Amino acid sequence: MVIRDGDYAYDKTVDLVETWKAMEKLVDKGLVRSIGISNFNSKQIQRVYDSARIKPAVL
Q1: What is the pLDDT along the chain (59 residues), one digit of tens a residue?
Q2: Considering the domain boundaries, does residue 31 fall inside one?
């Protein structure tokens, strides 16, 4: 979501790990070949990476 002047924010009520698990299911179903993350800070990356069964193809 764009806030103003190119600054971005994300919805903190959306759980990143839950979202990642949903994307892993898409890989399992063959609907996508790879998944990755973008514009995450180091804490967000580590949180996803620590819980990921399928590691991000793109960081």
Answers
A1: 555 665 666 677 889 999 999 999 999 999 999 999 988 889 999 999 999 999 998 87
A2: yes
Q: Which residues are CB-contacts of 45 (< 8 A; sequence separation ≥ 6)?
A: 37, 56, 59
Domain hosting 24: range is 16-51
Domain count, the chain: 1
Determine contact, residues 37/46, Cβ cutoff 8 Å.
Answer: no
Q: Is residue 42 part of a domain?
A: yes
pTM value is 0.78
26 lies in some domain: yes
d(CA 18, CA 23): 9
- Give Cα separations from 18 to 6, 46, 47 (angstroms): 27, 14, 11
